[in-house]
């Protein structure tokens, strides 16, 4: 806990040039809460509107009338906002820098070139019969065509649904069928970490499972591999692309028209199609991108996510392009050809802002500082993280080793549902506490409640709610408005339930403690699994840890810890004892793990999220029915976990 209470001021040199000061943040935040209508009417103007809106916010979270409509009577086009309006002033500025899987492979696309490519792509979609409102599924590697496909959909008013290229045919088919998408865009193969990913083969299998739903398949050549093409259904992008013009006027869209669907897993049931709209989403993406990352005209911004996740949507494509920024698109993985890759690429492209996930940071931390120090990293001025609570130890490593204590870290808390960042230590506006999400972004009103829904004031620990809408809020669950109501507004009527637990400290900083479904109750004490994990990970021997609850006769729930040790460490009884001691010392005896299982790897989704559902089942000795493991990056790890389970009672 000593680490966790540390405070770092933003470096004076950074603060002197920052877009925000503490005063400006306070002023803008107060204005955004005092009069949201006035605040967002003003900030909506950052976009180009074909027809200006007269009302910013038209939202009700009441069960009888649930609707989320921002800038409802305005009209705009997202692709025109991301491309066309920059042409006069930034035509020759790089929109994207593509860094291939092979470090020798990279390519820059200017805003002018992007315009041509997207217009052509849009005309290809039209030629394939795609119309406004149609759903188009994108199953692509991290290549430029993935972004052209997104922006082309936006240009003609089609709704894209990106399915991460690591998903199985089964998962892809389920998503295609759910949104009745007749067009699928894919590539012959993807390339990641030197390995080929058989996308077209998977797409064919998915189309088969989806039983005739897929009418057209548009295929991009990435590796030139020979793939089967089905007559009448499949077309190569380069062939059809040669037959269309590069002139495609943007379609005027209502601000509330859908922009995209993105499937995300809930704690129960099949993935839900989170639906985002046009105007509100883009205002939020652009504004958060500018303030969270202290954006300047000459920045080179690198978000290392995949476009298959919301982070890629908002902070590789829509936010940066709406701001006329230069965005890096990376095809590979952090450890290929070696653990120095991120930092080498930062040097190569003179990246100024780097944004990644704690899981990547921990993986690299395991390799020590050597690979980091192989690169200069002098261009980097700001670091960011997203996706899960970052344990203070990883934060410190990121801060001191990667950023050489020069660069502030923005720990951005948000969700697929929120469209963009919601809680963040805005750089220049606040001090940093390692591991703290810190403060709400403009317009975000937070509330902590106890299990009974009673509001908690001051320093407190509870369930995190948002009490009023923000422009980036999802509009509904595609095709299932009842599920939208049920999932987010039924636990605490009239308020948005995030599903996360959160602590507000005595200084008013917010600390996300992890999903509430992961909170455990030990002898009547509520504990964030993230807190125990953080303690474990701060032990020298530990690379990664995941903690779940399991039924315990005396305590109600016991603490079950899965631990991955660092290379060269011997995982034995002595280490077990030492870890228990360490956790007791870090948090207190109530946090002592009851069972510790050493594991070579944790079950993770391909986006790096630990699948706790599986860990909980194994911890509960209920491993015969682990449910769907198809989304795991490496399904093999599960066998080892079951073999070596510690609870056999
Ligand atoms: C978690 C990713 C702590 C949280 C953008 C949330 C975080 C879920 C952070 C959403 C963070 C995301 N600190 N926890 N900075 N960022 N989370 O939909 O539990 O993939 O509810 O969106 O990730 O995950 P999603």
Automatic annotation (TrEMBL):
PTM notes: Acetylated. Deacetylation by the SIR2-homolog deacetylase activates the enzyme.
UniProt keyword annotation of Ribonucleoprotein present: no
Name of the protein this chain belongs to: Acetyl-coenzyme A synthetase
Catalysed reactions, as listed in the record: acetate + ATP + CoA = acetyl-CoA + AMP + diphosphate
Gene3D superfamilies found in the cross-reference section: 3.30.300.30, N-terminal domain of ligase-like
Annotated residues for binding of Mg(2+): 537, 539, 542
Enzyme class at the top of the EC tree: ligase
EC number(s) given by UniProt: 6.2.1.1
Residue sites binding CoA per the record: 192-195, 311, 523, 584
Cofactor: Mg(2+)
Keyword annotations of the record: Acetylation, ATP-binding, Ligase, Magnesium, Metal-binding, Nucleotide-binding
Summary of the function given for this chain in its UniProt record: Catalyzes the conversion of acetate into acetyl-CoA (AcCoA), an essential intermediate at the junction of anabolic and catabolic pathways. AcsA undergoes a two-step reaction. In the first half reaction, AcsA combines acetate with ATP to form acetyl-adenylate (AcAMP) intermediate. In the second half reaction, it can then transfer the acetyl group from AcAMP to the sulfhydryl group of CoA, forming the product AcCoA.
GO biological process, one term: acetyl-CoA biosynthetic process from acetate
Organism: Hyphomonas johnsonii MHS-2
Stored Pfam families: ACAS_N, AMP-binding, AMP-binding_C
Domain Acetyl-coenzyme A synthetase N-terminal: 25-82
Positions of the AMP-binding enzyme C-terminal domain: 531-609
Annotated InterPro entries: Ac_CoA_lig, ACAS_N, AMP-bd_C, AMP-bd_C_sf, AMP-binding_CS, AMP-dep_synth/lig_dom, ANL_N_sf
Family under the similarity heading: Belongs to the ATP-dependent AMP-binding enzyme family.
HAMAP family: Ac_CoA_synth
Residues annotated as binding ATP: 387-389, 411-416, 500, 515, 526
């Amino acid at each position: 806990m000593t680490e966790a209470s540390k405070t770092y001021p933003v470096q004076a040199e950074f603060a002197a040039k920052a877009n925000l000061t503490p005063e400006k943040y306070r002023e803008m935040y107060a204005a955004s809460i005092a009069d949201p209508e006035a605040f967002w009417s003003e900030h909506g103007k950052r976009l180009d509107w074909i027809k200006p809106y007269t009302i910013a916010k038209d939202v009700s979270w009441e069960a009888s009338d649930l609707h989320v409509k921002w800038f409802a009577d305005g009209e705009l086009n997202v692709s025109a906002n991301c491309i066309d309006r920059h042409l006069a002033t930034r035509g020759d500025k790089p929109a994207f820098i593509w860094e291939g899987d092979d470090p020798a492979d990279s390519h820059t696309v200017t805003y002018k070139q992007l315009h041509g490519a997207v217009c052509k792509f849009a005309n290809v979609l039209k030629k394939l019969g795609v119309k406004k409102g149609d759903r188009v599924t994108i199953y692509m590697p991290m290549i430029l065509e993935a972004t052209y496909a997104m922006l082309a959909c936006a240009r003609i008013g089609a709704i894209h649904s990106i399915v991460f290229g690591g998903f199985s045919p089964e998962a892809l088919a389920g998503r295609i069928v759910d949104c009745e998408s007749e067009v699928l865009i894919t590539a012959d193969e993807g390339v990641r970490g030197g390995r080929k990913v058989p996308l077209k083969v998977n797409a064919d299998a998915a189309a088969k499972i989806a039983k005739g739903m897929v009418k057209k398949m548009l295929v991009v050549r990435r590796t030139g591999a020979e793939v089967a093409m089905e007559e009448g259904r499949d077309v190569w992008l380069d062939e059809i692309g040669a037959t269309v013009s590069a002139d495609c006027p943007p379609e005027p869209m209502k601000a509330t028209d859908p922009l995209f669907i993105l499937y995300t897993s809930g704690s129960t049931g099949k993935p839900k199609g989170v639906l985002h709209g046009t105007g509100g989403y883009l205002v939020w993406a652009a504004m958060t991108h500018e303030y969270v990352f202290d954006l300047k005209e000459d920045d080179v911004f690198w978000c290392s996510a995949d476009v298959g996740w919301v982070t890629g949507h908002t902070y590789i494509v829509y936010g940066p392009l709406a701001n006329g920024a230069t965005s890096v698109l990376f095809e590979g993985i952090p450890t290929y050809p070696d653990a120095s890759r991120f930092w080498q690429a930062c040097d190569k492209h003179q990246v100024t802002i780097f944004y990644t996930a704690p899981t990547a940071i921990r993986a690299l931390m395991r390799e020590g500082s050597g690979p980091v120090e192989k690169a200069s990293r002098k261009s980097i001025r700001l670091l960011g993280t997203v996706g899960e609570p970052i344990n203070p130890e990883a934060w410190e490593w990121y801060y001191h080793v990667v950023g050489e204590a020069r660069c502030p870290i923005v720990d951005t808390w948000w969700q697929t549902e929120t469209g963009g960042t919601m809680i963040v230590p805005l750089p220049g506006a606040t001090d940093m506490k390692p591991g703290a999400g810190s403060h709400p972004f403009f317009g975000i009103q937070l509330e902590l409640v106890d299990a009974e829904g009673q509001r908690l004031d001051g320093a407190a620990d509870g369930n995190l709610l948002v009490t009023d809408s923000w422009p980036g809020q999802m509009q509904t669950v595609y095709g299932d408005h009842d599920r939208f109501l049920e999932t987010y507004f039924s636990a605490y009527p009239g308020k948005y339930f995030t599903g996360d637990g959160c602590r507000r400290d005595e200084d008013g900083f917010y600390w996300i403690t992890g999903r509430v479904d992961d909170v455990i109750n030990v002898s009547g004490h509520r504990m964030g699994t993230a807190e125990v994990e953080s303690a474990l990970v701060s032990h020298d021997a530990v690379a990664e840890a995941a903690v779940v609850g399991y039924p315990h006769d005396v305590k109600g729930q016991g603490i079950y810890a899965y631990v991955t040790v660092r290379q060269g460490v011997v995982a034995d009884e002595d280490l077990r004892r030492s870890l228990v001691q360490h956790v007791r010392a870090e948090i207190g005896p109530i946090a002592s793990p009851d069972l510790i299982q050493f594991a070579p790897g944790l079950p993770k989704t391909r986006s790096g999220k630990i699948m706790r559902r599986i860990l909980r089942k194994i911890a509960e000795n209920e491993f015969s029915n682990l449910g769907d493991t198809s989304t795991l990056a490496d399904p093999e790890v599960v066998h080892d976990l079951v073999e070596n389970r510690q609870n056999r009672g």
